[in-house]
Specification:
The chain is mainly alpha-helical. The chain contains four helices and two strands, in the order H-H-H-H-E-E.
Length: 97
């Protein structure tokens, strides 16, 4: 996982998909807040400017298996595993490893 976190800075992500995931999480929290705490506690939240790479790292470290799987679907970069290490496909990412 540490190697993958290091590579995250070099990986190309579909930012629109990642922002959509963040918006879905915010909406999920809003529904939870309204149902559990009542309308008085609920606040309107909008997706702030986020660093998608930091969000991706957060999900990799703290997310569920499903959240991690969904994040991997947002990758534009091709990854491969060699000798138990994760690498970025050189052909798709200008030689970044």
């Amino acid at each position: 996982t540490n190697r993958f976190l290091t590579l995250m800075d070099k990986i190309d992500l579909n930012e629109l998909d990642v922002r959509k995931k963040v918006q879905e999480e915010i909406e999920k929290y809003q529904r939870f807040s309204q149902e559990v705490f009542g309308k008085m506690m609920a606040q309107e939240y909008h997706v702030p400017q986020i660093d998608v790479k930091n969000y991706a790292k957060y999900v990799l470290q703290n997310g569920t298996k499903e959240e991690k799987r969904e994040l991997l679907l947002c990758l534009k970069s091709r990854l491969f595993l060699k000798k138990q290490k994760v690498y970025i496909d050189k052909k798709k990412n200008n030689g970044v490893q």
